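[audit] Reproducing an earlier prediction to check determinism. Same input, same settings, fresh worker. If the C-alpha cells differ from the archived copy the diff job will pick it up downstream; this log only records the rerun itself.
[audit] input (794 residues):
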Amino acid sequence: MGDYIKNFSEIDIQDIAIVGGKNASLGEMFQKLTLKNVQVPDGFAITSDAYWYYLEQQHLKESIFDELQGLDTKDFSNLKIIGAAIRKHFSIASIPQAIREAIQEAYAALKNKYGTDISLAIRSSATAEDLPNASFAGQQESYLNVKGEEELLAACQKCYASLFTDRAIKYREDNGFDHKKVALSIGVQLMVRSDLACSGVNFTIDPDTGFDKVVLVSSIWGLGENIVQGSVNPDEYFVFKPSLKKGVQQPIISRKLGSKEKTMIYDDSGSGTVNLITTIEKQEQFVLTDTEVVQLAKWSVIIEEHYGIPMDIEWAKDGLTKALFIVQARPETVQSAKNKLEITTYSLIEKGKEITRGMGLGNKITTGKARILHSPKESDMLQQGEILITEKTDPDWDPILKKAAGIITDQGGRTSHAAIVAREIGVAAIVGCVNATKVIQDGQQITISCAEGTTGIAYDGNLKWTETAVDIKDLKTPQTQAMLILADPEQAFKCSLYPNSGVGLMRLEFIINNSIQIHPMALRHFEWIKDVQVKQKIEKLTHHYPNKEDYFVHQLAEAVATIAAAFYPKEVIVRTSDFKSNEYANLIGGQQFEPVESNPMIGFRGASRYYHPKYKDAFELECRALKMVREELGMENIKVMIPFCRTLKEAHKVVQLLENNGLKRGENALELYMMIEIPNNVLLAEEFAHYFDGFSIGSNDLTQLTLGVDRDSELLSDIFDVNDPGVKKMMAMVLSSARKTKTKIGFCGQAPSDYPEFAQFLVEKGIDSISFNPDALISGIKNINTAEANLEEL
C-alpha cells in the first residue's frame, strides 16, 4: 500500500504530519490503549502523501492557487465564489489509480476482519507539515454509513474538496496558515452501530470553567453528529475523578436529563443518514446506565493520563453488540490554555424582564441588538457587536461568529458546536433555550447574563452590570481561613477556582427550594395529600422516581456532592435545612404540613423541627442524602452543621438523632458544627462544645436576637447593626469560650468584607475562619490581610 495508506496499528501521535491529528490520535489509542481495555474501532488513514500525489496527478495545484490569488482577504466579499470554484475543480478530477488500488486493498483487509457487510465512517483530518500541532477541528467534512468501494471512493473525493469549504479557507486566512502547506489525510474507520443505540462526547474537565476533577459525559440517542452539531440537548453526567479512582460505590455526582429531540439513524436506502424525531418515551429516558457512564469516565481518565492533557472525546455504543467504543479523542483547547491566575467576576446590578433561559456559557454578561438568522447564508445581516439568535450552529457559521457579541440557540448542549465556539472566542452564550428564535424579536435590545451559575438568562433591554478583574497571583493567602458561603451547585466549579479554604456555609434550603421544590413530608407521605393539583405537580416532578422519597434524597445528594466535589478535599460545612414554617409552606404540598405562626422567625425552625413528630420523617430524608454523599459518593470532606439549636437538651436530641440516621459524630471522621445565633449559644458555649466539633457565628440572627430587632423590618433597619457594641461583645464572649475549649469557630456574613474594622475585630479575637459570599471574597481577603498585618505591628 506504499506511503498512501497507514493502518491504525502502524501510526501513533508522532505521525500527525502525515495523517493529521485526528488519525494520529486514533492510531495512538488503537496501538496503546486497547491494551488497557479502551475499545477503539479499527481502520486506516489515507496519508497526506496521497493528497499531494492526487493534486500533482490531476494538475490541481495551479487551478486551486490561481483561484486563491483573487480572494478578497479584507472583507471576504467573494469567499463563496472562490470556494465554489475550487471545489468544482475537485469534482471534475478523479482519484489516481495508485491511490484507488491502495484504498481498495486496505478496505478489503478491514472487511476480512469485521465482515463484508460493514459500514464506514469517513473523516477528514487536515495537517500542516511545518505546523504539526495546528488544530483544524471541525473545518472539514465527515461522512457516515458509507458502504461499498464506490461510495468509499466518492466520500474520499468529497473529503478532499472539503479542504476548501468557505469556512476552512476563512479559518486558515484568520490563523495565518499557508494554503499551500496544508494537506488532507482521510480516516476510514469501522462504523459503530450507534444508530441502533447511542453516542456522545466526554470532556475530562468541565468545559465551562476548566475545573479538572470531573469528567463530563454527554449522551444522545443515535449517531453522534447531532451532539457535535448541537442539534439536540443531551443528557449530561458529571463523574468525580477522585471517587472514580477510589472505586467508591457511586462516583456520579450529577445527572441532567436532556430532551434529545432528534435521533440520527442509517437511511433505509442502504447508505447515508436521516434524522428522526425521538419518541416522547425515549426523550424522557436517560440514555446510559450508571455502569456505562462510569465505564466511559474511566476510559476518559485513562486517555487523559496517557496524553497528559485535558481531552475532548467522542464515543459510540453499538446497538447490536451493546459494546462501547471510543471513536475520537483530541486535546481540549479552550480552558486548558487559559490563565487561571486572573479572575473576572460579572454581576448584574439591575434586573429586567426575562425573555428566555437555557444553558449559560462563558460566565459573562453582555448586551446588544438581537439578530435572528436561520442560516449562515444570511451572514451579511449580522453586524459587529450584535447577538446572534438561531436554531443551532455548525462549522459553516464559523466565518461570522467572531462578529457576534453573544450567541443564543434553541438547540444544543454544552458540548455543541455553538458552546465550543463561544468558549473559544470568549463570548457569552446561551444554548438549548428551545424557544429563543420565537420569543426574541429581531432587532430587540437584549442582555445576556451567564454569570448566575450554569443557567443563562436573556433579559429585555440593556441592563447595567459590574465587571471586576482580580489578579490572584498577587493576593496573599491570610492565616485566617477565607471560606465561601455557597448554596447554588451551578456556581460551585467556578467558585472553587477562587482563592479559598473551602465552604464555611452551604445552605440546603436553597437546593430544596430551587431543585427539589416539593415539601419533604409531601414526598414521605404522598398518600396523605388531599389537593389533586398538588398531587399532579408532584407526580410530574418525580415521574423518574418510582419511590418519591428517592427523588428528594438523590436530588439533594447530587447537589451537595457537586459542591463537595468542587472544593475537595477542603472542608464543606453543610447546614441542615433552616426554612421558617411560612417558607416551608410555600413548597409544593407544604401548606398541608406546616403550622400557621405569627412569628416564624423565632418559631418552628432549625433543630426544633428535626426531632418533632411533624417533621422528623422529613429530616430523615436529609440525613439519608448526607450519608449517601459521604459514604456512597466518597465525599468525607463534608461536615454537618445544625442551625438554631436553642438548648443543651436540644443539642443532645439532635446529635442522637443524627447518629440514629447513620451520621455518628467521629465515625469516618464526621465532624458536627453548630450555628451561634442565639444568646443562649453564647452563654453556654463551653457546654455546647461537648456536643459539637465547631461553631459558626451567624451574624444576622445573633444581631437580631441580641438587639431584639426583626432583621426584616424596614422601620427598624437603622437599629439593626452588626457593629453594635452589645453584638460585638456577644461575639467576643463566644470566641473566648471557643479558644478555652479548643473548639473551631468561624464567622459567616457580609460585615468583614464591608467593614475593614470588623475584620480587624474578628482577627484580633482569634477567629479561625471567615466565610464570604463569592462576590465579597476578594475584598474580604484584603481586609483580613490588612487586619493580620496590623496585628503583627502591635
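[audit] rerun output stored. Observation attached for the diff report: Residues 751 and 758 are 6 Å apart (CA to CA).
[audit] end
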